[in-house]
Amino acid sequence: SQSRYVERLKVEMVGSNNHFAKLTDDDVRFIRKNHKVRDKNYSVAALCKKFNVSKGTIHSVINFTTYTNVV
Question: Pick from 8, 26, 28, 50: most CB atoms within 10 A?
Answer without folding.
Answer: 28
